């Protein structure tokens, strides 16, 4: 069933005001009176709803649904600004794979330089991609998007995480292959995890030192060299596999 | 260091004849006498080599390198033909993530219909993408590419696998979350694994039954609904995490 995010608190009946959502509901999907959809307000609870009046864009809430597709931990992906539209791709896929926060920052080896105007445009485009991907993948929340203009502002955020993993290519090359699995085995539900990735050129040694200073651990993500936009997908799939599949295996 | 695949058996000295490789070596990278690269012949062994004569496209092999980036198991990704250029994307990412074979077949719910001419063009394009991705990600082998014209030919191949996993969306929706992890915990090095994915619409119930008949197990890949081109990346990352990272954690 089609799912839509609705801004604000749950109300019944509800009138849809977001233009893109109205367009998708009534022009693309051509919903009519009695059609059912799932609405997710900002409380992250899925609710079954039925169209009351397509002209008024109004729906009646029928019941709460007990369906949660969120990872048991809060995962932030932070990527050095990559070239081209790779961040679009990364935002879509990271949303499908369960990230709670999708961040990007100007890394030492980022080739692109994005000023405030460019960052504003990027933010608008990425927000739409993330919202659409969150609806399609049946998420309970829309991942938070944050593009940092200055790296210093990103660095200030590091204190708020329980675990910081630095995807450092040199660690992978040196054969590091135990830190991530060891840490994930000890993680508690609800913990805040941050994975930091470089742009195409990787994380600079100075950045790696700064992230370590803030409590980060360098981790290898297997022996193959992944592109900047692929490594975050590996990390998210690993978190899901470790905490949603492998953990379930032991208890059922 | 730049890595190139070279057709045929290892010889010393070696003359590069593949046009794309010649172009990349001597026009793009502008290699000159004495420059070093890594060459990988069809035996999958990496060898350090030094340019002897750029005009002759000749290189001298210096030594074998003890570097293996292949997964400990042989993983085949088989996808129902997806729309547009999603197979390009999938081929590139599956190569980075360690797949040994990248297959696609006309699934019941594939929207696209590819005739032999189209399949020929697709094969040429995908082969280049896969080769490039294998060089960039430092693989020891170039994944095999196979596009099946008929589903029947694909079905005949199923007998050759040790484990067949069916990424069936209905299983994920029903909360199936233990089969993959249980199986991966019992896997032996060198086993042949097949993961089957549907196109955008998913695997049809008839296909799921045929794959089960051939020994396939339906598996859920976490509670979120992934796009057709994203689910294979989750599967490959899970295999790597389970067999390369989580397994290493216990033994070191």
UniProtKB/TrEMBL annotation, chains A, B:
One of its GO terms (molecular function) is rRNA (uridine-N3-)-methyltransferase activity. Its EC number is 2.1.1.193. Keywords: Cytoplasm, Methyltransferase, rRNA processing, S-adenosyl-L-methionine, Transferase. Its main location: cytoplasm. The keyword Cytoplasm applies. It comes from the Bacteria. GO terms for biological process: rRNA base methylation. Residues 17-61 form the Ribosomal RNA small subunit methyltransferase E PUA-like domain. CDD domains: RsmE-like. GO terms for cellular component: cytoplasm. It is found in: Cytoplasm. It catalyses: uridine(1498) in 16S rRNA + S-adenosyl-L-methionine = N(3)-methyluridine(1498) in 16S rRNA + S-adenosyl-L-homocysteine + H(+). Pfam families: Methyltrans_RNA, PUA_4. Residues 70-239 form the Ribosomal RNA small subunit methyltransferase E methyltransferase domain. Specifically methylates the N3 position of the uracil ring of uridine 1498 (m3U1498) in 16S rRNA. Acts on the fully assembled 30S ribosomal subunit. Belongs to the RNA methyltransferase RsmE family. This is Ribosomal RNA small subunit methyltransferase E. It comes from Streptococcus macacae NCTC 11558. The lineage of its organism: Bacteria, Bacillati, Bacillota, Bacilli, Lactobacillales.
């Amino acid at each position: 069933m089609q799912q839509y995010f609705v801004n604000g608190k749950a109300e019944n009946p509800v009138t849809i005001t977001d233009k893109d959502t109205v367009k998708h509901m009534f022009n693309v999907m051509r919903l009519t009176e009695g059609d059912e959809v799932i609405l997710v307000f900002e409380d992250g609870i899925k609710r079954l709803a039925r169209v009351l009046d397509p002209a008024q864009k109004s729906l009646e809430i029928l019941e709460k649904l007990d369906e949660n597709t969120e990872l048991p931990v809060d995962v932030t992906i932070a990527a050095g600004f990559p070239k081209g539209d790779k961040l679009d791709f990364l935002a879509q896929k990271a949303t499908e794979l369960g990230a709670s926060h999708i961040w990007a920052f100007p890394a030492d080896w980022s080739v692109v330089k994005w000023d405030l105007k460019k960052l504003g445009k990027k933010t608008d485009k990425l927000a739409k991609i993330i919202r659409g991907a969150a609806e399609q993948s049946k998420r309970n929340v829309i991942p938070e998007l944050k593009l940092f203009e200055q790296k210093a502002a990103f660095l200030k955020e590091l204190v708020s995480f329980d675990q910081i993993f630095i995807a450092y290519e040199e660690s992978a090359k040196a054969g590091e292959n135990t830190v991530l699995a060891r840490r994930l085995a000890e993680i508690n539900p609800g913990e805040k995890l941050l994975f930091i990735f470089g742009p195409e050129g990787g994380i600079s040694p100075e950045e790696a030192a700064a992230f370590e200073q803030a409590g980060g651990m360098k981790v290898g993500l297997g022996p193959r060299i992944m592109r900047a936009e692929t490594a975050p997908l590996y990390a998210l799939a690993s978190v899901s596999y470790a905490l949603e599949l492998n953990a379930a295996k032991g208890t059922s």
